[in-house]
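Exercise: predict the structure of this protein bound to zinc ion.
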Amino acid sequence: MCKTAIYQKERRCLVCEKSIHGRSDKIFCGINCKNHYHSEVRKITKTISAETVKIINKNWAILTSMMTKDYNQVTVKKLTLQRLGFDFGAITSVHSNHSFINFGIYNYIYYITKYDKVVIMRNKEESIITPFLFKRMLKQFPILAI
Ligand SMILES: [Zn+2]
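Solution:
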């Protein structure tokens, strides 16, 4: 009786809501709906990833503006970075040691002290951004030109 109830339940296409016939794992009525669904998923994924990369690039630009050429480490107030639009939720890597959690953004790593200071360091293990990419970021984030 229970088995009969499952077979009687009508399955509907995820896209157009038409009735589906055939294999039990089928979720689209046909190839057009399947293609439409995957096209929409690709579009959304591309938009989300582009926005995330933009935020990470902005963070990188802000960290670069904080660093001086002569030093590989600088300490700034967390509030200073926040006022410049730094997004602490967007990073490219995370590492932990005994004292701090280090967050990475491309070739920089930083950690936050208990006094809300941010210690920014160049990560020597990461490769340096190419000059081409740097020029592109300079156009996108004029803060670097300061
Ligand atoms: Zn359909």
